[in-house]
Write a structure and sequence with these properties.
By secondary structure, the chain is mainly β. The chain has a single domain, classed as 10 Kd Chaperonin, Protein Cpn10, Chain O (Roll). The chain has a six-stranded antiparallel β-sheet, with no helix packed on it. It has a two-stranded antiparallel ribbon with strand order 3-4. A hairpin with a 5-residue loop joins strand 3 and strand 4. The protein starts with 8 loop residues before the first strand and ends with a strand.
């Protein structure tokens, strides 16, 4: 199944949550924190402006992004949980 986000939305594959602490203690399922970063899998064409033109997104496929803990909508694609977020819900881009 192929998903193409609309307008200024991006499809993000969240990072895998940590299963151990830095000191090596394994975390139970209930103690794991929801990941707040992930990789952009697909982007929409951009937001349509009042003048009819489309504003380009500042993120692209392959970027690693940071987002709010409860941002976006979860969708399941091919057995993996993804997030669909508006570009404005993204907090930053990691790297480059």
């Amino acid at each position: 199944m192929k998903v193409r986000p609309l307008e200024d939305r991006v499809l993000v594959l969240p990072a895998v949550p940590e299963t151990r602490t830095a000191s090596g203690i394994y975390l139970p399922e209930g103690a794991k924190e929801k990941p707040m970063q992930g990789k952009v899998v697909a982007t929409g064409p951009g937001k349509r402006m009042d003048n009819g033109k489309t504003a380009a997104l500042s993120v692209s496929k392959g970027d690693t992004v940071v987002y709010g803990k409860y941002a976006g909508t979860e969708v399941e694609i091919k057995g993996d949980t993804h997030l669909i977020l508006r570009e404005s819900e993204l907090l930053g881009v990691i790297g480059n």
